[in-house]
Specification:
Layout lengths: L7 H24 L14 H18 L7 E4 L3 E2 L2 E2 L13 E4 L9 E7 L6 H13 L4 E7 L3 H11 E2 L1 H9 L1
Parallel strand pairs: 5-6
Antiparallel strand pairs: 1-4, 2-3, 4-5, 6-7
């Protein structure tokens, strides 16, 4: 039984599997839009898609006896009893998806920030995940764009899944 950690490769395998399941089962959520969209507001809310991905991820982890003492949450905004805040997000922030142990910061495993192909502005997400990596000591953080195809989404995964070594690289520059 693996309580609090898995290897990077096990995580990549889990994420790939869940993205494939999302695109196979819920592609309507990603692709549905009016015939003549006037803005990104014409698409479904990103949270709807993230919830489905989180469902598949929690199920995959449970079915494979991985990270058994951790949970997958969406829009989790607490640091114990306080509001989560990092860097420029002094009034609080919450990650789209988180794998952690609730109530403490001893087992912060993964944060994912999602964007959709119709809203590619990722800079705030990148700032946020860097802050969580440093200030809350997450094992992994990721920013990913949900593209029109699963292949295009998966092609980003390995490069966008960061761990503590990314901070060490920046410190050496």
């Amino acid at each position: 039984m693996k309580d609090y950690s898995i290897t990077r490769q096990e995580l990549v395998t889990a994420l790939k599997r869940c993205f494939k399941e999302l695109y196979n089962n819920d592609y309507y959520l990603i692709s549905h839009k009016p015939a003549n969209p006037s803005s990104y507001d014409d698409h479904l809310c990103e949270r709807t898609i993230i919830f489905r991905f989180a469902y598949y991820l929690q199920k995959y982890l449970e079915d494979n006896d991985l990270l058994e003492k951790l949970v997958v949450d969406c829009d989790y905004n607490r640091d114990g009893y306080n509001i989560k805040s990092v860097g420029n997000f002094v009034n609080g922030t919450y990650p789209d998806l988180i794998i952690h142990q609730r109530g403490n910061n001893e087992h912060n495993f993964l944060i994912i920030e999602f964007k959709t192909y119709w809203n590619r502005n990722v800079q705030k997400d990148i700032d946020k995940i860097k802050g969580f990596l440093v200030e809350y000591n997450y094992d992994y953080v990721m920013s990913i764009i949900l593209e029109k195809t699963v292949q295009d989404t998966l092609s980003q995964l390995e490069d966008n899944l960061w761990d503590q070594s990314i901070i060490k690289k920046h410190e050496q520059l």
